[in-house]
Design brief:
single chain; about 220 residues; Rossmann fold; 6-stranded parallel β-sheet; 10 helices; 6 strands; about 10% strand
């Protein structure tokens, strides 16, 4: 379905990463990675190393975070990660201001999508917030398409709605998000309150660095995108 372009703004489709961008889950995911590695006898990865892999497909992320864990233990490693995450997921919530920002984008008739390294099961569970209903047009997850930084999930969303790369914006907190946008020939915005540090994100030349959801929303408004 083609989306009519609004000439008054540079973008029509906004693709948000989930963890660390809309969902305040970075610290929990980091702790769950560390605990799961220890559970299978691996050396506990430093927090920065564990946080770096957020956004990647789960098993690729765990393998990267735990290079000393042998491959035959990967299934057990994944099981332990899911155990720790499920046990503590009640702690998680959306970042302050996310619902208000998405409602405003909806009122301005933007296409709002999610492009995430989570599984479809994991994202569907996370999207059960009552306030999110009717605010998300579409989504892609790592297990139903290619994981980041492969651009396939962005390409699929653009093709689904007939939106050109020049009219698509990716918003994310990791280099995986920004690299995916670059490969898809899309512009990007970096949020600095998630998993990766500013210095890692700078090389991808995002349009802005948003230090909070409020900053991101203010930028949307001021630029009338």
């Amino acid at each position: 379905m083609a989306q009519d372009s609004n000439s008054k703004r540079p973008f029509d489709l906004i693709a948000f990463d989930w963890d660390g961008t809309l969902f305040d889950s970075t610290q929990l995911i980091t702790r769950c990675i560390q605990a799961s590695v220890e559970d299978v006898g691996g050396q506990r990865p430093p927090a920065q190393q564990a946080a770096y892999v957020i956004g990647m497909p789960l098993m690729a992320a765990l393998a990267h975070a735990a290079p000393d864990v042998p491959e035959h233990l990967y299934p057990q490693l994944g099981e332990r990660y899911r155990f720790h995450y499920k046990k503590n997921e009640h702690e998680l919530t959306l970042f302050d201001g996310v619902i208000d920002m998405l409602q405003w984008l909806r009122s301005e008739q933007y296409l709002i999508t999610i492009a995430t390294g989570k599984s479809r099961t994991g994202l569907n569970a996370a999207l059960q917030f009552e306030a999110l209903r009717g605010l998300i047009d579409d989504s892609r997850t790592a297990d139903e398409t290619a994981g980041k930084p492969d651009p396939l999930m962005l390409n699929e969303l653009m093709r689904q709605y007939g939106v050109m790369p020049s009219r698509t914006l990716m918003v994310g907190d990791t280099t995986h998000d920004l690299e995916m946008a670059k490969r898809a020939a899309c512009a990007s915005v970096a949020v600095t309150y998630g998993a990766h540090e500013d210095r890692e994100l700078k090389k991808y030349s995002p349009l802005i660095f948003a230090d909070s959801v409020r900053d991101l929303w203010d930028w949307f408004k001021s630029h009338q995108i």
